[in-house]
UniProtKB/TrEMBL annotation:
This is FAD-binding domain-containing protein. It comes from Dendrothele bispora (strain CBS 962.96). Its cofactor is FAD. The keyword Transferase does not apply. PANTHER family: BINDING OXIDOREDUCTASE, PUTATIVE (AFU_ORTHOLOGUE AFUA_1G17690)-RELATED, FAD-BINDING PCMH-TYPE DOMAIN-CONTAINING PROTEIN. Belongs to the oxygen-dependent FAD-linked oxidoreductase family.
């Protein structure tokens, strides 16, 4: 591998800081000691790496790293080669400002640097450090999804390096099967070296910030949210978080609003009025107008920097904001974070983006099986010490199982799991439903030998 004639760098444990830095992931639990880390700078650097790894006996495992945000070890390898796309992070807005091409190793922050300057917008992550690659291939929910759907619904084309080394363009006209598979099938069909997305008019100014209520007021807060939801428009979204913020670490309900296209802040004020003047008043109220998604995407930086770096995330979908389900999760979270100081930074998030736009796409039109209106939730198990990592893992698994079962009981729909927030040990039929057979056929067509063996693995047909 060290002797490959490519323009990018090949790092090994002997490369010192450059190697150690390249191993870093958003969660310390996602780090594995790779034998080689290759950082391509050209798309043509990648096929020789694949050829070299697959020609060894036994073949070297290949992992692909986009932004490194996923909390499993999908973008890392123990003793294999990591194709680290971090140097492929260019973002190019088309001259007509109708589309934007983003290389597969960019962070959403790289995209927002450009969209902020050019006063345009694109469906992307609420947090700057999430990678465009993994996020998009898993579907991609974001603050603009209420208006414009998921990231994959806004994907116009992509360039993929296939397992056999070919570099192909894919869109609804070129390699359409591949285009279908990458819009929610994960990194199982090739390396996405670039994506071209639809661009929208500027979504700013944006009403954004934070309101917090004591956890003891959960029932009242849920009532305010449930009432607000009846009049929700596609341009307004809340996330509701259960967390224990420093310095008091008391159970707290943190509400993060995002109100798009609010020229003078008056719409944000109107929407928030019941949250301020209802039966319960916030103990913290810091909401204002910010210019754009770049600013929104940095809002949580300080809190995240202070949090323990051992993180495991799981999540799933819910059909509605059922108070009984939310209260059940709250009670479980409260008991867990009270039981052990090591894990008190563990948190739960419910995303309340208007779900109707995502339901305009059919459930067989992309690999994502759930296209009836739904919301997503995530549970972050964080641990200060190695001793409590297992407890944090069990907690995340317990919460998502509870949510899935309770949602099925209350809605009559079993939504299974959402790929992006899986850990890899879920049943594939629970993730892809009736889309699984087509995904398996396409895996057989594009990667019969499972060169892409990391991530949520789809088995080729035998
Ligand atoms: C704090 C936090 C908040 C999040 N919020 C949201 C949210 O609001 N909405 C949402 O939809 N998701 C959200 N996610 C989930 C996130 O989208 C996934 O974890 C996603 O996989 C991260 O992408 P990445 O490129 O950073 O990941 P990585 O860890 O680099 O990769 C994850 C997987 O994708 C593959 N992959 C990455 N890039 C490529 C590529 N270019 N080509 C082929 N395969 C690739 C990797 O091989 C790996 O299997 C959040 C995650 C975190 C940690």
């Amino acid at each position: 591998m060290e002797n490959l004639s490519i323009q990018g760098q090949v790092l090994t444990p002997q490369s010192g800081d450059a190697y150690t830095t390249a191993l870093r992931r958003n969660s310390d639990l996602s780090v594995l000691p790779a034998k080689y880390i290759v950082q391509p700078v050209l798309y043509e650097d990648i096929p020789p790496v694949i050829a070299c790894a697959t020609s060894q006996s036994p073949p070297l495992e290949i992992a692909v790293k986009g932004g490194g945000a996923h909390s499993a070890t999908w973008a890392s390898s123990n003793g294999g080669v990591v194709i680290d796309l971090s140097k492929l992070n260019k973002v190019t807005l088309a001259a007509d400002k109708q589309s934007i091409t983003v290389q597969g190793g960019a962070y959403w922050g790289d995209v927002y640097e450009v969209t902020s300057k050019e006063k345009v917008d694109v469906v992307g992550s609420p947090l700057w450090f999430v990678g465009v690659g993994g996020y998009t291939l898993g579907g991609g929910h974001g603050p603009l999804s209420g208006e414009h759907g998921l990231a994959v619904d806004n994907l116009l084309s992509a360039t993929i390096v296939l397992a056999d080394g070919r570099i192909v363009k894919t869109s609804s006209d070129e390699e359409p099967d591949l285009f279908w598979a990458i819009r929610g099938g994960g990194g199982q069909f090739g390396i996405a070296v670039d994506f071209t997305f639809k661009v929208y008019p500027y979504a700013g100014p944006i009403g954004a910030g934070m309101m917090a209520y004591p956890g003891s007021e959960i029932a009242q807060v849920l009532k305010i949210i449930t009432d607000w939801k009846k009049t929700q428009t596609p341009t307004e979204r809340f996330t509701m978080n259960f967390s224990r913020p420093a310095p008091h670490f008391k159970p707290t309900i943190v509400i993060l609003p995002t109100v798009l296209h609010d020229q003078d802040g008056s719409r944000t004020q109107k929407i928030l009025a019941p949250f301020r003047e209802g039966a319960v008043k916030p103990v913290l109220d810091k909401v204002g107008l910010v210019p754009d998604m770049l600013t929104v995407s940095h809002a949580a930086d300080a809190a995240i920097a202070a949090a323990p770096r051992s993180l495991v995330i799981r999540g799933t979908l819910i059909s509605d904001f059922f108070p009984e389900l939310l209260l059940g999760v709250y009670e479980k979270w409260l008991a867990f974070t009270e039981s052990n100081e090591d894990v008190r930074a563990s948190a739960v998030l419910f995303d309340l983006t208007s779900p109707h736009k995502l339901a305009e796409i059919g459930s067989a039109d992309t690999p994502l099986k759930n296209r009836e209106p739904n919301y997503w939730m995530a549970v972050q198990g964080r641990s200060k010490t190695d001793a409590s990592v297992e407890a944090a893992r069990e907690f995340t698994a317990d919460i998502v199982s509870f949510v899935r079962e309770k949602n099925a009981e209350l809605s009559g729909q079993d939504l299974g799991w959402w790929l992006t927030l899986c850990q890899g040990n879920e049943k594939p039929e629970d993730v892809f439903g009736t889309n699984l057979p087509r995904l398996r056929e396409l895996k057989t067509k594009y990667d019969p030998k499972k060169v892409w063996s990391k991530g949520f693995v789809i088995e080729p047909l035998v």
